[in-house]
Design goal:
Elements: H1 3-17, H2 24-40, H3 45-61, H4 70-87, H5 92-95, H6 98-101, E1 114-120, H7 126-139, E2 144-149, H8 156-165, E3 170-172, H9 180-191, E4 198-203, H10 211-224, E5 228-234, H11 241-252, E6 256-260, H12 268-276, E7 281-286, E8 294-296, H13 299-306, H14 312-322, H15 328-336, H16 341-354, H17 356-362, H18 372-390, H19 394-398, H20 405-415, H21 419-438, H22 442-450
Parallel strand pairs: 1-4, 1-5, 2-3, 2-4, 5-6, 6-7
Antiparallel strand pairs: 7-8
Helix pairs in contact: 1-2, 2-3, 3-4, 4-13, 7-8, 9-10, 11-12, 16-18, 18-20, 20-21
InterPro entries: AAA+_ATPase (IPR003593), P-loop_NTPase (IPR027417), Signal_recog_part_SRP54_M_sf (IPR036891), Signal_recog_particl_SRP54_hlx (IPR013822), Signal_recog_particle_SRP54_M (IPR004125), SRP/SRP_N (IPR036225), SRP54 (IPR022941), SRP54_GTPase_dom (IPR000897)
Catalytic activity: GTP + H2O = GDP + phosphate + H(+)
GO molecular function, one term: GTPase activity
């Protein structure tokens, strides 16, 4: 997905990460690289200039927060500006409460049947997306019904039924009836007594210049009064998405946008940025042809993946929510390689609270290299290690070197594990001590701060 943009952004970042000194010339170079990357992804020129202007001004004028290096601060600025660009851009930012919309949540009323009106230009992939959305919603516990009201495209109802049959979603349609408004009324009546939570309405693909279809859309909107209106946009059209999204938004109060065909397109960044500029949220992105190739869109995690940094925001939020207190003495011990088994245990406790899988998946540099099966093994080991350390005496916690065969057997019995598990823990503890002692650099210090230890 957006491989070209991803590669160009990472190349730009490498110059900052590998630089021995951060100066204005290097920042100017970063801005130029960023401009080339975004323009190649078909992002609007005005937005590109705005983001690079903000990046340069903030990088030169802002003082990094205490404990954060200049490099880290610049990367954080870039991360934030790109998230803003792909989340809510232009004038729309001023009118949207980002605290409520940043997570792109969909709100459904649990006390009634909810309706989703699906709109889009012909050829945008709307009918296929309906099946993908039905699949996504059903995986989240909703029962789905679909109304096929696209009376313009031959075979639309057949395609809809075929796609929805794969996920056991019931489809209402009337072959031969060209009155879309009547079909919708009849469909709503049909699903009134059916055990469904959400009704998705497929409509004819239309263009911003086709006044007849736009009028039909407005009438349908007034009849249905939908809970949600989703607009499907083809990601290959790039920044042209702005005009499409704008005209639909003005006519039907779009509550969310779904961007399709992002796999392999160079213009996807432009489509996301342009759509966001309308003020309607980008809710989902299509990433492939399979029924499950639809993912919920989050600007921050999307940017993190583009930069190869994981979802930094998610990790920092988890740490903030836990209000992990700084322990300077513990940090000094860790950095000097004098870590005790209790320090080691404290780190596991913090990681456990944040969710070990979340930490690894969101940690810069590790998210791309640790496989799911490895995560499961590490998670299981850490669960065992917790119980093992709880079975240590105070003397053993202070000095694990005193643990002999007899002590090892007692610890294994007390924690309900095998003796080799106790050996494995001590080996890992010693390896960690050595690693901490060797990694006395900013990178390790920054990592410790993220765990609340700096």
């Amino acid at each position: 997905m957006l491989d070209s943009l991803k590669d160009n952004l990472r190349l730009a970042l490498k110059k900052i990460v590998g630089a021995s000194d951060i100066n204005e010339e290097l920042i100017n170079e970063l801005c130029k690289d960023l401009q080339r990357a975004l323009l190649a992804a078909d992002v609007n020129v005005r937005l590109v200039l705005e983001i690079t202007k903000n990046l340069k001004e903030r990088s030169l004028k802002e003082t990094p927060p205490k404990g954060l290096s200049k490099k880290d601060h610049i990367i954080t600025i870039l991360y934030g500006e790109l998230s803003k660009l792909l989340g809510y851009s232009g004038e729309a930012i001023k009118t949207i409460d980002r605290k409520k919309t940043d997570e792109n949540l969909i709100n459904f009323n649990s006390d009634k049947k909810n309706t989703i009106l699906m709109l889009g230009i012909q050829g945008s992939g709307k009918t296929t997306v309906i099946a993908k959305l039905a699949r996504w919603l059903s995986k989240h516990g909703y029962r789905i019904g679909v109304i096929g009201a696209d009376t313009w495209r031959p075979g639309a109802l057949t395609q809809l039924k075929m796609n929805c049959s794969k996920i056991n979603a019931q489809v209402y349609g009337e072959e031969g009836n060209k009155d879309a408004l009547e079909i919708v009324k009849n469909g709503m009546g049909f699903f009134k007594d059916q055990p469904v939570d959400i009704i998705i309405i497929d409509t004819a693909g239309r263009h911003k210049e086709e006044q007849g279809l736009l009028e039909e859309m407005r009438t349908m909107y007034s009849i249905v009064i939908p809970d949600q209106v989703f607009l499907v946009i083809d990601g290959t059209i790039g920044q042209q998405a702005y005009n499409q999204a704008k005209i639909f938004h003005e006519n039907a109060k779009i509550s969310g946008i779904i961007i399709t065909k992002l796999d392999g397109t160079a213009k996807g960044g432009g489509a996301i940025a342009a759509s966001s500029a309308t003020g309607a949220k980008v809710l989902f992105i299509g990433t492939g042809e399979r029924i499950d190739d639809l993912e919920q869109f989050s600007p921050t995690s999307f940017v993190g993946r583009l930069l190869g940094m994981g979802d930094i925001k998610a990790l920092l939020e988890m740490a903030r929510n836990l209000e992990i207190q700084s322990d300077e003495n513990q940090a000094k011990r860790l950095m000097s390689g004098k870590m005790t088994i209790e320090d080691f245990y404290a780190q596991m406790e913090n990681m456990g609270k944040m969710g070990f899988r979340n930490v690894i998946e969101n940690l810069p540099g590790l998210s791309n290299f640790v496989k799911d099966d490895h995560l499961d093994v590490l998670q299981q080991k850490m669960e065992k290690w917790r119980f093992i350390i709880q079975s240590f005496t105070n003397d053993e916690k202070k000095n694990p070197d005193i643990i002999n065969e007899a002590r090892r057997k007692r610890i294994a019995r007390g924690s309900g594990v095998m003796e080799h598990d106790v050996k494995d823990l001590i080996k890992q503890y010693n390896n960690s001590k050595t690693m901490m002692k060797q990694a006395k650099g900013r990178q390790m210090q920054g990592l410790l701060r993220r765990f609340g230890l700096g």
